[in-house]
Amino acid sequence: MIAPAACTHVPTTLAGPRAEACEVCGETRNLRVCAECGHVGCCESLGAHNTQHFRESGHEVIRSVPVDRGFTWCYACGRYL
C-alpha cells in the first residue's frame, strides 16, 4: 500500500485562536481555528462558519479547538492530517 502524499497546504507557522467564540455568530461549542490566520469559526453541525472562512479566504487548513487535543483538516486535500 502506498502512503498518501504529505499535505503541502499546512502553513509553516500555525496560528493560534484569535477569539474564544465563533467570530461570526458567537457560538462557543465545536470551534475550529484557521491554521493560517487564527480566525475562529463554528463547525459544520452548527453555522459552518469555519467553511465560510475557507471559501472567502482560501485558507485551506483548520484545527479543532482546543488545538492540543483535536484534529487537523485540510479542505484542499479533503482529509484529516
The counted number of beta strands is 5
Mean pLDDT: 92
Strand content: 15-25%
**What's the Cα radius of gyration?**
12 Å
Distance between the termini: 18 Å
Examine the coordinates and then state which fold CATH places here, giving the name of the CATH topology of the domain at 31-80: Herpes Virus-1
Shape category? globular
Which CATH C-level class of the domain at 31-80 is it? Alpha Beta
Sheet of most strands? 5 strands, antiparallel
Instruction: Report the total helices.
Output: 1
Q: How are helices and strands ordered from N to C?
A: EEHEEE
Low-confidence stretches: none
Helix content: 10-25%
Structural class: alpha+beta
Pick out its properties.
81 residues, alpha+beta, Herpes Virus-1, five-stranded antiparallel beta sheet, 1 helix, 11% helix
Describe the structure.
By secondary structure, the protein is α+β, with helices and mostly antiparallel strands. The protein has a domain at 31-80: Herpes Virus-1 (2-Layer Sandwich), CATH 3.30.40. The chain is 11% helix and 20% strand. It has one helix and five strands, in the order ββαβββ. It has one helix at residues 49-57; strands at 31-34, 40-42, 61-64, 72-74, 79-80. A five-stranded antiparallel β-sheet has the order 2-1-3-4-5, with helices on one face. The chain is globular, with a radius of gyration of 12 Å. It starts with 30 loop residues before the first strand and ends with a strand. The relative contact order is 0.22.
